[in-house]
Amino acid sequence: MNKVKLIAVFAENKPGQTARITGLLATAGVNVRWVTIASTGPFGVMKFLVDRPDAAFATLKQNGVAVSFLDVLAVEVTDRPGALHAVADCLAQNRLNLDNASGFVANRRAVLVIELHELERAQTLLQQAGLRVLTQAELLSL
Fold first, then answer.
1. CA gap 10, 139 in Å, rounded
2. Domain 72-140 sits in which CATH superfamily?
3. Residue 95: what pLDDT?
């Protein structure tokens, strides 16, 4: 299975929290390749794709940070109108709910990072639909 491991941090939504977390990662020599930050009121979740997830997890945990691993899929799509729809439609047709998603373009390759239940089933269905699901190594090499 081509799941990608992210680091998820639950933190208070206040000035300096992002600097604290990223400072710990930088000091540990962990390179952040992608990040998303979302907050709802007094708390938020930061999700990171890093080059060394185990080192990032250990460093954050040792410093009292509420951290966990989060498995996601990284789907390479064409960089054109309708690409996101192809993924969403494939999931919808197979009654899979898309919990969270974000996307980016790097080196002329468009990637959609998706969170959902039933990762293995989702990967199979997306691949059957002609979509490419990247491995962690492939995603980090972009």
1. 24
2. ACT domain (3.30.70.260)
3. 98
User: Where is 72: in which H helix or E strand?
Assistant: strand 66-77
For residues 4 and 118, give the distance between their C-alpha atoms in angstroms, rounded to a whole number.
14
Tell the CATH topology of 4-69: VC0802-like (3.30.2130)
CA distance 125 to 118: 11
* Secondary structure (3-state) at 140: helix
User: Which residues lie across from 101 on neighbouring strands?
Assistant: 114
Please list the helix, strand and coil fractions of the chain in percent, rounded to the nearest 5, in that order. 35, 40, 30
Domains 4-69 and 72-140 share a fold: no
Distance of alpha carbon 97 from alpha carbon 117, whole angstroms: 7
59-82: per-residue pLDDT in tens?
999 999 999 999 999 999 999 999
